[in-house]
Each structure stands twice: as C-alpha cells, then as structure tokens.
Design a protein that fits this description.
Elements: H1 4-7, E1 16-17, E2 28-34, E3 40-46, H2 54-63, H3 71-81, H4 84-95, H5 102-113, E4 115-121, H6 125-136
Helix pairs in contact: 3-5
Length: 148
C-alpha cells in the first residue's frame, strides 16, 4: 500500500508483478512492494542510457537475475540470504550436485521476494532523481534502499 503522501507525489500506475512488468523505455521512478498487498520496500530510478533504456531497461536487469549487486537486486538478495529456509534450499541443491549460477540465484531470490511494482514517468533523468529523493524522504517506511 502506498502512503497518501507518496501517492500524491506522482501519477503512479497500477501494481503489477515485477516478473511481468513492461514499462516504457522512458525515464521515471518505480516503487516495489513485497507481495500483492504488502508494504512498499524500495524506490528506484530508471533513467539511464541502458540497453532498452529507462524504466524498462532497469526492471529487466532485475528479472534477468543479473542485478544482484545493485539497488533492488542487492536489497532482495540480502533478505533472501537471511532466510534460513531459502538458503537451506540453495545449499541442498549444491550438496546434490546441482549448483546454480549466480544469475539463477538472483532469479530464485526474486521469486522468493514476490515483488510487485508500479511506476511514474518523468520528463527527464533529473526529474526522476528529484522524485526518488522526495519519496525516500517520507518517514516511517522500511526502505530496502541502501542510500537514503
């Protein structure tokens, strides 16, 4: 659920599962929540010159499992690694001779997190960065973001 304060900052889209999200290749800000009705846990920017561009490029990096060490990927992977059951499943796979590649671990962590996203488009990277800063400044949110 988005707080009224965050909701009033921008015209946010409806929530969709991260694994099926298809935002435009435009600059903007995305919110992530854990579960279909869970709390908002992360805010990020999709505005760089990535292949595919903007929000689309940023969110696709996460769903590919290749963004374990940055932003949302790092936040969800840290929490998956702290879950004994999830980690035990990964260790059992290794012990049975079926170790996964790092990107597969990333996808497994993504499935564990059950993330949903919504986004708001902006005119520029600068506008997206400013909106992200305003959202991160909202008190009382348990952000997964490292830098606040």
């Amino acid at each position: 659920m988005i707080s009224r304060e965050i909701q009033d900052m921008a015209p946010w889209t409806d929530w969709v599962p991260l694994i099926s999200a298809d935002p435009p290749p435009s600059p903007g800000v995305y919110l992530a929540r854990q579960g279909a009705g869970g709390p908002v846990v992360y805010v990020g920017v999709g505005a760089g010159a990535r292949k595919g561009g903007g929000l689309r490029g940023r969110l696709r990096r996460y769903t590919s499992g290749k963004a374990l060490a940055s932003g949302l990927g790092e936040g969800l992977f840290d929490r998956a690694l702290a879950d004994r059951d999830w980690l035990r499943e990964r260790l059992t796979e290794v012990e049975r001779g079926r170790p996964m590649r790092a990107s597969q671990w990333g996808k497994a962590a993504l499935a564990w997190a059950d993330l949903y996203v919504c986004w708001a488009l902006t005119e520029s990277r600068e506008e997206a960065m400013a909106l992200e800063s305003r959202v991160l400044a909202v008190p009382g949110v348990g952000w997964w973001n490292r830098a606040r």
